[in-house]
Amino acid sequence: MKQIFILSLLFSFLLATSEKWSLKNFNFTMENDADFETDYSYTEGSRISLLFARENIQNNSFHIPFTEVKNKEHFISFAYANQMYTPQDVDKVELIKDDRPYAGWSYIEVGLHQSSFNELDSLTTQFGIIGPAAKMQELQDAFHDWIDVRHAKGWDNQLQNEISLQLNYMHKWRHKYKKVLGLDHDLIPYSGIYLGNVSIKASTGALYRIGFNIPDDFGINSMNEGSFPSVSVYNTPAFTNSWSLYFNFIAGANLIVKDIFTDGNTFRDSHSVQRDFYTAYFGAGLSMRYANFTLNYMHQYYTKDYKLRGNYEKYLGYGLLLLEYKF
Description:
Elements: H1 2-15, E1 21-32, E2 41-54, E3 73-86, E4 103-115, E5 119-130, H2 136-147, E6 162-173, E7 175-176, E8 184-196, E9 199-212, E10 243-259, H3 260-263, E11 278-290, E12 293-303, E13 315-326
Antiparallel strand pairs: 1-2, 1-13, 2-3, 3-4, 4-5, 5-6, 6-8, 7-8, 8-9, 9-10, 10-11, 11-12, 12-13
C-alpha cells in the first residue's frame, strides 16, 4: 500500500506541471507458471499500468537524456507491479541451501517513452521493496486459495527487507514490410541495459509479428523487458481497421552481472545460489483485438538462471496474459 501512496503523490505532482496529458492506454499484465504446471523459479508477476501522451512539451526539458526529441510522440507511464520467486521444493519448511531463495518484490514504475515512426526509446525508474515487507507470501497464499492449490511452506527463508531502485533503458527498432500472402508482418529488434540493486544486465532480442491488421505500434513485451507494451508510432493512428488477429514470436538473451533474486541481498547476509552469467528465452503467442480492446497471450520459455544440483528442466516457462484498452 505504501508504494501505491507514493505513486499517487508522484502522479499528483506531475499533473501539476504545465503539460497537457491525455490517457492513451490502460494495461493489465499477469505472468504465471501455472500454464507449465510448475510452481517455482519465476512463479508469478502482475502489473497495472497507464500510459499518457504528453501534448505540449515544446518548452519542457523533461525528456530522455541524449535523445532527439523533435518529430516524436512523447509519453509518460505509471505502473504498480509485483513479482515473486520460489525454489523447486515448496513443501520444505527449512532452508534449501542448493536452490534459489524465496523472494518477493513490490514496486512502482514511472517511465518516459519517445517514439518516431520506426524507433522507440524507453527510460523507466522502478522504486520498491524486496522482502517480507512486500507481502508476497500473503499474495501468493491468497491466490493459491483461490485456485485451490497448496501453500508454499518455506517463505520464512525469503530474502530480507531491502529497498530497491532500478534505472532501465530500452531501445526498439520497427521494420514494417510489404504484405506477404495478404498478411501484414513486421520485425521489432530491441536492446536494453538495466542498472540498480535488483539487477545489472544487458539484453537483446527481437519480436516478429504476422497476421491481419497489425497495429502501428512497437509490440508487446514481458514485465522483465523494460518497456511499456504497445506504444504507438509517431503521427500514425494505432488502428486503421476495427479488428486485428496476429501471431507474436519472440527470442532474446540477457548478459547478467547481478541479480538479487539469485545473488541474495545487496547489503545484508542472506541465502544465495551460483548464478549463470547469461540466459536465453523464446516464446510464441496470439493477439486478438476488436475496436479498442486487445487480448494478448504468450507462452514463453527461458533457460535456468542458476546452477542447481541434480536433474532439473533445461527450460522453464510461464504464460503471459496482457489485457489492453486504448483510448
